[in-house]
Amino acid sequence: MPAEGFTTCLWFDGQAEEAADYYVSVFKNSRLGRVGRYPEGGPGAAGSVMVVEFVANGQKFVALNGGPQFTFSEAISFQIFCDDQDEVDHYWNRLTEGGGEGGPCGWLKDRYGLSWQVVPAKLIGMIGDADPERAARTTKAMMEMGKLDIAALEKAYEGE
Fold it and tell me: Which long-range contacts (CB under 8 A, 24 or more apart) does 124-130 make?
C-alpha cells in the first residue's frame, strides 16, 4: 500500500475542472494539480478534461469527467470538523452557495450534489458524554437544527 494514503476520486458529468477550482477556493491548504485530457478515440471529446488532480484541506482528490451514469448520494459524505461558529458558518455558507442546499443535523449538499457534514469538533464528545441526559439533550437539539449552532448545542448540553 502506498505510504501517501488514499486519493478520493469524484465522478462528474463535465464539471471536473470547475469543481476542482471551486473546492480549492473553499478550503485552506489546497491547490490544483495536473490536468489530463481525453485523447483522440477516447470516450470523451478529444482535448476535453478527463481528470483534474487537486488537494483540498490537505486531502488528495481526482475529479473525473466520467459522464452522466453515476451521481453522488448521501451514502458518502465528507465531515468538516470546525473549531468555532465562524468556521461552521464559513463552510456552510460557501458549500451551499450557488445551488447547494442545507439539510438536517449539519448535513448539506453542495452545488454538485456532494454531501458534507459541517460539524463542531466538540459535538462528538457532547453526544457521546457518559452522562446520558447531557448526551440526549445535545442530540435532541442537534436533530432540530439545519446548520449547527454551537452556542445552542452548548446550552442544551448544560441543561439551560
Answer: 126/153, 126/154, 126/157, 129/157
